[in-house]
Design goal:
The structure holds two protein chains of two kinds. Chain A contains 15 helices and no strands. Chain A is mainly α. In chain B, helix 1 crosses helix 13, helix 3 packs parallel to helix 7 and helix 12 packs antiparallel against helix 13.
């Protein structure tokens, strides 16, 4: 592992206590680097232990789960997964999975499209109310959803849309996740203005500038929005709990909750297996896009 | 209040500026109505904005006003709302011990989890702030719990780990501490949720790390030259230079903590027990609104929450004058 010597010196002040003695001595520095790796790895082991425990528990017999600290199961069984795939409350787990997918994919499409449109208007177009509307948009980022919950519920109830996926997807189609509008505004404002000017001289209107210049160049912001929207709506619990009432419409988090309340300790195994399945897509997204996700947090202050 | 909470790491803090000189001002120019000074039709902008405008009116402004109105009524979804004036608010504070319990539980949760989370985030960010190829990998790994933590599945793991005879109970018993199951103990149940919250310190950690990287190296060089030790450097360079980022994380995490819901719901099966020890504010609001269908009462609770969050945010910004350090105009 190569470390640029200069920068490592600066880091040491912050990290390993900066004893100041012996800097630049090769062996000493290597030792310190080793200590750093060991510290990081030990902390990570502790931090990620619950997830490893979950994974191990999902292949353990029920009586081993609760009490065993060990990550290595004495016997590996797949019965837990078999039990999960036999369904809950007479509904197949595939149904829950499909429902979760519909909600999440619908939310992603809604958010990406509507937020990109709004962000383009805020960042590239000039119109009279831009200042006040932008301020209002920023203000809604911090608004607790609870103040909207009751009236939104009554509206959707009057429209006879409770227990459908619409109350979960429709708000995304209308760009109510102001945070992502903000994220895209920040990104689009950084795009080279000259491209737009050139296109305008060539006779392109705002619509074509959007479609041919701004949208293609905004891909990183669109992808970040898509991934975060997917994960957040996949994890979302409160609004799904409120709007989805029949097991046929349950998403994975709701099905899991159904499991919790129905099971005794004897079927902990199936519960663990189902938890693993619920977390699996997030894990996969994380491994595929971790760089983009972390950069997204670092540059926007996004906070899951 | 909210405009100022824009991320410290990104560059701008103002509303978006027109690309070149401001299009509005120039007095000598007469504009065609409906067009800006470049002759573009501004109507197009509203076309692009229309989904957002529709959402803002129908799903934000409208519901906000509606819930304000409902908070002064008795409403059960079936009959028309009946105006009761301030009765909901009076009853909340005078006749509802569970509401007061919920406030107390939530305040304790915010006061415990937010500082712990930020301290953990800062400590790990400082640990990771070092030139190494492995930094990116470690950073991602520490961040992972922030993505997973909101899930019902993780809350469920917590519930089992902290259960009677569960992993934590066994581990503590092995070293002679007998606490029993934390989940079923009114004394410890809240700590299970604090642990769940603190576990997700990755997001503020990533933000801290980005902030640390922006502190000019010269300051550390100068500090070393003056013979300052680690603690002194931390107090006199790192903390003040990082204070805008600390404020940002503090505001965000505090607002976040006030609204915690899923963990408490899963760990207590939606009841907030044992003995209301995990009855988070949002959980009680959910119970009133969506299991008892007392929508007016729940609306009043929601508005109190909004006001409390606004007040706390304003307070944090007010104290910020005392401890947030902006080097000249620009912290960078």
């Amino acid at each position: 592992m190569t470390v640029t010597g200069m920068a490592a010196g600066g880091g040491e002040i912050l990290t390993t206590g900066g004893t100041g003695a012996g800097r630049g001595v090769g062996a000493d520095r290597r030792l310190r680097r080793l200590a750093w790796h060991v510290t990081c790895l030990l902390l990570l082991a502790g931090l990620l232990y619950p997830m490893a425990w979950l994974l191990a528990s999902s292949v353990k017999p029920a009586n081993e789960i609760l009490s065993s600290l060990s990550l290595l199961p004495r016997t590996v069984i797949l019965d837990n997964y078999a039990e999960v795939f036999s369904g809950a409350s007479g509904v197949s787990v595939w149904r829950f999975l499909a429902n979760s997918l519909v909600v999440s994919v619908g939310s992603v499409i809604g958010n990406v499209v509507s937020c990109a449109l709004a962000a383009y208007a805020f960042s590239w177009l000039r119109f009279r109310l831009r200042g006040p509307l932008f301020a209002f948009m920023i203000a809604t980022i911090m608004l607790p959803i609870h103040v909207l919950l009751v009236p939104q519920y009554t509206v959707f109830q009057q429209l006879d849309l409770v227990d459908t996926f619409w109350p979960l997807i429709l708000p995304k189609l209308l760009a109510t996740d102001a945070f992502f509008v903000f994220l895209m505004v920040q990104f689009m404002r950084g795009l080279p203005r000259e491209l737009g000017d050139a296109a305008r001289i060539d006779g392109c209107g705002p619509v074509r500038v959007f479609a041919h210049i701004v949208l293609p160049l905004s891909r990183p912001a669109l992808v970040t929005t898509a991934i975060f929207t997917f994960i957040w709506s996949w994890n979302d619990f409160l609004s799904q709990l409120i709007y989805l009432n029949t097991p046929d419409n349950y998403t994975l988090p709701l099905a899991l909750r159904l499991f919790i309340d129905q099971t005794s300790q004897t079927s902990y195994g199936a519960m663990m297996a189902m938890s693993v399945l619920t977390l699996l897509p997030i894990g996969l997204f994380f491994f595929a896009f971790q760089r983009l996700l972390v950069e997204g947090v670092a540059t926007t202050g996004m906070n899951g | 209040m909210v405009q100022r909470t824009q991320p410290p790491v990104t560059v701008d803090r103002s509303a978006p500026q027109p690309p070149r000189s401001s299009g509005d001002g120039s007095p000598g120019l007469r504009r065609h109505p409906g067009r800006n000074r470049y002759g573009e039709r501004t109507g197009v902008a509203y076309l692009f904005l229309s989904p957002w405008v529709l959402g803002a009116l129908l799903l934000t402004v409208g519901p906000m006003l509606a819930s304000l109105y409902l908070s002064f009524t008795d409403y059960d979804l079936l009959t028309t709302p009946r105006w009761v004036g301030l009765e909901n608010y009076r009853r909340l504070f005078a006749d509802d011990p569970r509401f007061l319990a919920a406030i107390w539980v939530t305040v304790r949760y915010v006061l415990l989890s937010t500082p712990l989370k930020l301290v953990a985030a800062l400590a790990v960010a400082m640990l990771l702030n070092r030139a190494s190829r492995a930094q990116g990998v470690y950073r991602s790994a520490f961040y992972a719990p922030s993505l997973l933590g909101a899930s019902v599945a993780v809350a469920l793991v917590w519930r089992v780990i902290f259960d009677n005879g569960g992993v934590v109970d066994r581990a503590l018993s092995a070293v002679g501490i007998h606490t029993g199951g934390w989940v079923s103990s009114p004394r410890y149940a809240l700590l299970v949720l604090v642990a769940l919250g603190v576990w997700q310190f990755g997001a503020p950690m990533v933000i801290f790390l980005a902030g640390l990287k922006q502190i000019p190296r010269e300051l550390y060089d100068a500090s070393a030259m003056d013979g300052a030790g680690w603690w002194r450097t931390f107090r006199s360079v790192t903390l003040p230079m990082l204070s805008p980022v600390i404020l940002f994380n503090l505001v965000l995490e505090t607002i976040h903590a006030f609204q915690a819901f899923t963990g408490a719901f899963v760990v207590s099966s939606g009841r907030g027990g044992p003995s209301d020890s995990t009855l988070f504010y949002t959980l009680y609001l959910y119970q009133k609104g969506f299991t008892e269908y007392r929508m007016g009462y729940a609306s009043a609770m929601a508005w109190i929450l909004v006001l409390v969050i606004a007040a706390v945010t304003a307070l944090l910004f007010r104290t910020a004058r005392l401890w947030v350090f902006y080097a000249g105009e620009d912290p960078r």
